[in-house]
Structures are given as C-alpha cells and as structure tokens.
Specification:
The protein is of the alpha/beta class. The protein is about 50% helix and about 15% strand. Helix 2 runs parallel beside helix 3, helix 2 packs across helix 11 and helix 10 crosses helix 11. It is globular, with a radius of gyration of 17 Å. It binds pyridoxine-5'-phosphate (PXP). Pyridoxine-5'-phosphate (PXP) binds next to strand 8 and helix 10.
C-alpha cells in the first residue's frame, strides 16, 4: 500500500506568521525520508496554505507529486506548466475548512461536469495522470469512467468520522466496481493511525492520501517518524 503524504498543513502553519517557516519542501524531504511514496498538496484558489512557488519547488525536488486542485482554467494552466505526476480534481468551496465532499459528476448543473471534462482533456493532453475525488457512490464511479479519468480517489471522510462498517463497505464496493470498469483506485480524507488500515485492506486500493493526522502526530514525534509510523499502520 502506497502512502501519499499531504503537506498542506505545514504551509498552513507557515502562513499563520507569513514567515518562511516551516518550509513545505523541507517537510516533503522529511516525509520521503520517513517512507512516503509521494507528496500531495492542494493549491487552492484562495492560496490559504500552499503557494504557487511551493508547487514549483516541490516539482524541482523531483518527488512524485499529486497536485489537488479545482477544475478551473487558472489551475489547469498552472498544472500544464508545472506538470505534476498526477492531478486530483477536487470540488472547492471558499468557506470550507477542508474539502467537504467528492465531485458531483451527476450534478444537474451541466456546467460542472463540462468543466471537469474539459480539465481532464487538457491535463491528459499534457501527459498528466488524472484522478477524480468522488464519494463512494456507484453513479459517480460510472461517470468518472465515462469521463476517462485514470484514477478515482474515494472520499473516506464519512467512514473516518463514523467508523461505520456500512460506510467502509461502500468504499469497498465502489473500489471493486471501479476496478471492473478499468479505473485505478486511491482513497483519502480523515484517515488516521487507527482507521486507515481497514481502508488499506480493501482489494485493489493502490494509495492512501493522508495529511492532517500525520502532521498532527509530527508535532510530537517529528515528521519522519510520524510518516514511518503511518507506513507501518497501513502495511
Ligand atoms: N484527499 C483529498 C482529495 C483531500 O482534499 C485531502 C485534504 O486536503 C486529503 C486527501 C487528506 O485529508 P486529511 O488531511 O484529512 O488526511
């Protein structure tokens, strides 16, 4: 099981004082030293944590980079220029504390779907692998395949918050369905040292993207150790 470490909240801390510290690139190096298989960051429209320069420097670091972003013309342009290994398209709301749900690929607002379709096309043309962050719902999985995404990232937030076996089962069913129609599968959101293993055990799951719980643990034990403990937890 691969682990993508999301370093957004290192940048959140830095932005609190608008100084250069702590440096997300140094965090990425530590995460890799702890066994991270890739680095994940979310360049938000409001630039509340990760900045454009961070993404550029992460690219220069050469680690496998998964850039989370909204399907906007601005973000597509940035991604096509910086060429991360993967883009995960997420919905974005200005006032949310974190990504609240998956993309609605079945929205009655057709514009939403056409924005995503357009972004996928442009990113794939630039040689970037594209993943769609969706809820573990059959219709969303079918739509993701119809839009020719390479991967889906299944939103694990509901399971992580409730620890409900029903929610876990939904993730398992969505993963199985996705594999059958040719999609590759990642998962993430709200995963921690206790709840991640059950998601890691789902057949066909390739990578878990985890941020907050690792950064929170790193405050006490350091990032390298926090990452290696998570690698161990999801083995
Ligand atoms: N995956 C996606 C698509 C996300 O938006 C986030 C949060 O930035 C994560 C994974 C990581 O979530 P968490 O910080 O709760 O581990």
């Amino acid at each position: 099981m691969k682990l993508g470490v999301n370093i957004d909240h290192i940048a959140t801390l830095r932005q609190c004082r608008q100084e250069g510290l702590p440096d997300p690139i140094e965090a990425a190096r530590e995460a890799l030293a702890g066994g991270a298989d890739g680095i994940v960051c979310h360049l938000r429209e409001d630039r509340r944590h990760i900045q454009d320069r961070d993404v550029k420097r992460l690219r220069e670091l050469g680690a496998r980079l998964d850039l989370e972003m909204a399907a906007t013309a601005e973000m597509v342009k940035i991604a096509r220029r910086l060429k991360p290994d993967m883009v995960t398209i997420v919905p974005e709301k200005r006032l949310e504390l974190t990504t609240e749900g998956g993309l609605d690929l079945n929205s009655k607002f057709k514009i939403q779907k056409s924005k995503v379709r357009n972004a996928i096309q442009k990113l794939k043309d630039a040689g970037i692998v594209v993943s769609l962050f969706i809820d573990p719902v059959q219709k969303q999985v079918t739509e993701a395949a119809a839009l020719q995404a390479d991967f889906i990232e299944l939103h694990t937030g509901r399971y992580a918050r409730s620890l409900s076996l029903l929610e876990l089962e939904k993730i398992g069913i969505a993963a199985q369905q996705a594999r059958l129609i040719g999609l590759r599968v990642n998962a993430g959101h709200g995963l921690d040292y206790d709840n991640a293993k059950k998601v890691a055990d789902i057949p066909g799951m390739e990578e878990l993207n985890i941020g907050f719980s690792i950064i929170a643990r790193a405050v006490f034990v350091g990032l390298k150790r926090a990452v290696s403990e998570m690698k161990e937890a999801i083995k």
